[in-house]
Each structure stands twice: as structure tokens, then as C-alpha cells.
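Usage

Read records sequentially. Each one opens with the input sequence:
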Amino acid sequence: MTFLTLASILLFFVLIVNKLLLEPLEFLASFHLPSWLMLTLGLSLLAWLIGE
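and closes with the structure output:
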């Protein structure tokens, strides 16, 4: 993996954790997808990035 890929993953997690800790209701309300679907998509994206 390149440094850019690692930085992107780190930034993604920082943003998600920050949103989940500070604004859980607004964060969840801003999405119309079920939480299990968002989690599945997120894990799939992460697995794809690691596999690159």
C-alpha cells in the first residue's frame, strides 16, 4: 500500500469516529441507508483498499 492509501484510510476513520462521537443523531439522520448496509459497504471498501 502506498502512503496516500494509508493516509486516506486514516482520514476516513478519523472523520467517521469524530462524527460518531460528537454528532451521533445528526450523523445517522444524514444517511437514508440502514446502518448494517453502511457498515457492509465500509468494510468492503476497506478490504478492497487493503487488497490493492
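Summary fields computed downstream for this record:
- Helices lie at 3-22, 24-29, 35-51.
- Residues 19 and 25 are 9 Å apart (CA to CA).
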